[in-house]
Every structure is written in C-alpha cells, then in structure tokens.
Design brief:
The chain is an alpha/beta fold. It has three domains: 229 residues, TIM Barrel; 130 residues, Rossmann fold (3-Layer(aba) Sandwich); 122 residues, Rossmann fold (3-Layer(aba) Sandwich). The protein has 19 helices and 20 strands. The strands form three sheets. The protein has an eight-stranded parallel beta sheet. Strand 15, helix 15 and strand 16 form a beta-alpha-beta unit. The longest helix is centred in the last third of the chain and has 19 residues. The two termini are 43 Å apart.
C-alpha cells in the first residue's frame, strides 16, 4: 500500500536502547525509504526521550511511521494513554509523518483529543489478533474506519494458508487497508503480497516484532522481494517442520544467477488439503516435498513418473498449465550420484536406517544398482514392507552389533538441526566401511562424528541435497541449472553456521 510510503518494504526498527534504535535506523535507510519506529520496544521513558531527542527530520522521500503500542494491545509500552499520545506527538514533531494507533486506544480516548495532539500526522489505525484469525473481518474493518483514519491495518495470526488468503482478499477489495497475516504458516503469503502493485510488508532490521516476520536482509537478498511483480513465478518446499530447510537459499541462488523472475519459498504445511487448495490462489508453479508428506502427496497427484510410483514417494511436483499435478523423485538421483563415486554399488551390502519416503528412494536406488539392501526402522512392519519391496532383508536392532555392512545410510531425521546431539545408532553398532547420512544440516551429524571416531569413511548429505535440488530446478524450468552457484550458496550457509556455533 504505497499510501504509507514509496516502497513496498517497510523496515521495522526495534531495540531496547536509543543507541540501538539509531543504529538500526541508519541500517534501514540504506535499504528502504519506508520505516516503522517501534518506540514501545525501548526499555523505558528515558530511552524513548533520548531516541526522540536525537531523531532528525528524514530526507526527502523517506517515510517514518511512529508506533508506541501499549501492552494491552500486544505491544511493550506500559505507560498511560496520555503519555502514549504525547510521545507520538513528539515523534511527529521530530519528523515522523505517520503514527500507528491501535483500536484499543482509540476506543478509550476522545477523538477530539487525538485530533488536537496528533492532527499534524497521518493515522494508521490498527487491530491485532495474536491468537487466531477473527471470523468477522468485515465488521472489524468497518469499526477501524470510524472517524476516517488515513489508513487501517488488520494483523492476525494465521494457522493456514487459507486463513492468510481470506485476510489478504479483504485488502484487495478495499483501498487503504493493510492486511498482515502473522505466523510461520503465513510467511509465504506475506512475501507474495509484494507481487501486487499495492503490496506491503513489514521486515525487521534485527529484532522480530511479530510471529512469521522475515528479516529485511532476507527479503531483499534471499527472496528479492522488492523486485517482485505480478509476473513472478512461484515455487517452494512443503513440509513440517520447514524452517531448517536450505532449499530456498539453493533454488533462489539459481534463479538469481539466471536472472529469472522467480522465487522459491518455505511452506509450513500441516494439512495437505490446505496447501493444495492454495496452489491456484498463489500461482504456484512447482514445489519440493519433504517430511512428512513425501508419501501422502501421491494420493493427490494427477500422475507421476514410473520410478516415483515404484518407490512410492515423491519429492518433486510440477503444476502444469491446466492445474494438474505431476510428481517425480529426484532423491533417487542424489543417492546414486553420491554413493557411486565412493564405492562399487553392485554386490555391496548396505543397511538403510528408516522406512519413510527418503528411505524408500535410497532403497530402490541401491537395489536397482545391484546392492543387497537391508532395512532397519523403529517400526518393524514398515521395515519389513520396504525390504520386501526391494527384495531385501529387514534387520532387527539387536543384530546390528554382530553384522557387517559395506555401507550404512541414515534416511531418518534423527540428528537433524536443531536436535544435533542425537544419533539413530550407537558407535558399537557401526560395523561398516562407510556411513552416509542424508541429513545435510549440520554437515557433520552426531552419527558421522561417531563413525569418524571409529575410523570409518563418512559422507555428508550435502552432496545428495544439492544433486536432487539441481534435478528439481531443471525439471521446473526446463533449463540447465547453475549447479556451482547453487552448491556454493548451500556450502557458504553451512560454513557460516558452523563458525557461529563454535
């Protein structure tokens, strides 16, 4: 909504100290001309006074929005309404053009007083719902418009893409209304709103001030959100959990390198039906599938390749022009490419840990390459089912200390970030020449550390992750992937994470 400024991205400046606020403001001004100042995040009145005393009128083209949200409305300020209005008036005098005033204050304060103190600024009247999406959005919008504010905002916690769509649809029908879906499930909707001409999104410089916010740096560098338009093609990854995934970083690096008007987003999906109903709404062209949906997605496809059908798991879906869904499995490619460089697959005896979608891809890839496949999983029925499907053998946990394998492949999520101190097996159970962990974050899992300590060759899941991702990228775009740029993006992120954890 460009009534609030000259840019779709509004940087959010929030700190407990005046010094921190000024530092963040300088950072924000280098990236966007529209900035919200969260005065309620300042520790006390002294810090508010210090910050406002040092605030200078912005340069031409910069829009500053002052917010001093009281605790009763979901903010941090504990002072009186009278003090709230006085500080907002000071902010307007220091150069802010807009102020955000929550409906809770408006309902308790005479309009004449608001006009007398804040009449020199433009009012954004807001309502926030931090627990759930309200049912009566139309009535809330009408209530907010009483007294004729310059613009209104409804921010609500969304537990599904359907919730986010309903909220944003209201904004598309009414001018001067900001619709802000909150929560991790709504993150893609917040970003994709920027494709519209009147799109608008808040992005914190440092401190997240609402659930589901994406940092200003990520919005600009990772998602290139300030360059989005109605022609931007949308891809993504669906899973639960999904925040750990580096797929957005890898695929967006490919789009950036090829200068394609496309974006790849993380979709936290607990209900497949919710996502499937949102594909057309958000214009999704293709998506990756990860835990726990790799097998369940098969029930919703219009078709899939023979290999994916045989494996019984899909990790890649293309949305065709007619809206039909076609599935593939590129984990298969990643497994073969990773292991074939390190060991002869034909005649090797390989133990697979797990019996889910990833494990099925590993098992079928190795079986077709001529390996003797053994399977162990916590659920014996699933282990025996997978072993039978590939003419292999299910192995009981008690036998692992006495069996030898050419390789052990972990295809479970045990040891994945953030539970990095866990391992699916103990050191004494690692009787093999090579251990391959399909987990890529962290690169060196607890399982790989245990294997390395025993002198066993180890292989990180990074290679498989990048290989399957490159195959996905090429399926969706029909072009040769910039493989090296995608690989570098993933490795750089993992190396940075490892340095920060030391």
């Amino acid at each position: 909504m460009q009534v609030l400024g000259h840019n779709k991205l509004c940087a959010v400046v929030a700190s407990s100290t005046a010094q921190g606020m000024h530092r963040q403001l300088r950072q924000a001004l280098r990236q966007t001309p529209t900035i919200e100042l969260r005065l309620d995040w300042l520790a006390d009145d002294h810090q508010i006074n210090r910050f406002l005393a040092g605030l200078k009128a912005p340069r031409l083209g910069v829009t500053l929005i002052a917010t001093l949200r009281r605790r009763q409305a979901g903010g941090h300020y504990q002072g009186t309404i009278a003090k709230q209005l006085l500080y907002l008036a000071e902010a307007l005098g220091a150069g802010c053009q807009w102020y955000d005033l929550e409906i809770e204050t408006v309902q308790r304060c005479p309009q004449e007083l608001i006009d007398a103190l804040l009449g020199g600024g433009r009012q954004l009247r807001s309502a926030h719902f931090f627990r759930r999406m309200p049912q009566n959005l139309g009535r809330i919008a009408r209530e907010l418009k009483r007294g004729d504010p310059d613009a209104i905002k409804i921010a609500a916690q969304c537990h599904s893409l359907g919730d986010a769509w309903r909220l944003q649809r209201l904004a598309r029908r009414q001018r001067n209304l900001l619709a802000i879906p909150m929560g991790e499930a709504a993150l893609p909707a917040r970003i994709l709103a920027l494709r519209a001409k009147r799109g608008f999104s808040y992005a914190p410089v440092e401190q997240q001030t609402a659930p589901g916010q994406t940092s200003l740096e990520d919005l600009k560098r990772l998602y290139r959100a300030d360059h989005m338009n109605s022609a931007t093609e949308v891809y993504g990854v669906i899973g639960d959990p999904i925040a750990h995934s580096l797929s957005p970083l890898m695929h967006n690096a490919g789009f950036r390198r090829r200068r394609m008007n496309a974006v790849y987003l993380p979709f936290l999906i607990k209900d497949l039906e919710d996502f499937l109903g949102s594909i057309r709404r958000f214009g999704i062209r293709g998506f990756s599938v990860t835990l726990p949906h790799k097998r369940a997605i098969l029930n919703h496809l219009d078709g899939c390749d023979r290999l994916a059908a045989e494996i019984g798991a899909v990790n890649t879906v293309v949305v065709r022009g007619s809206g039909t869904l076609y599935g593939s499995n590129t984990d298969y490619v990643g497994v073969l490419g990773t292991l074939a460089r390190r060991m002869p697959l034909r005649g090797s005896r390989v133990l697979i840990l797990g019996a889910g979608g990833a494990a099925r891809a590993v098992a079928f890839a190795l079986a077709k390459a001529g390996s003797a496949v053994c399977v162990w999983a916590r659920r014996w029925k699933q282990a025996t089912g997978l072993a039978k499907a590939v003419d292999g053998e299910a192995v009981a946990r008690r036998r692992l200390c006495h069996e030898f394998f050419d390789a052990i492949v972990n295809a479970t999520p045990v040891g994945m970030f953030p539970a990095v101190d866990r391992s699916p097996l103990e050191a004494r159970e690692l009787n093999c020449r090579l251990v391959f962990d399909t987990i890529y974050r962290p690169r060196a899992t607890r399982l790989l550390h245990l294997a390395s300590d025993r002198g066993i060759e180890t292989v990180s899941g990074v290679e498989m992750f990048v290989a399957q991702g490159i195959a996905q990228w090429e399926i969706w775009t029909g072009e040769r992937a910039p493989a090296e740029a995608m690989r570098r993006a993933v490795l750089a992120a993992l190396e940075r994470e490892e340095r920060e954890s030391r």
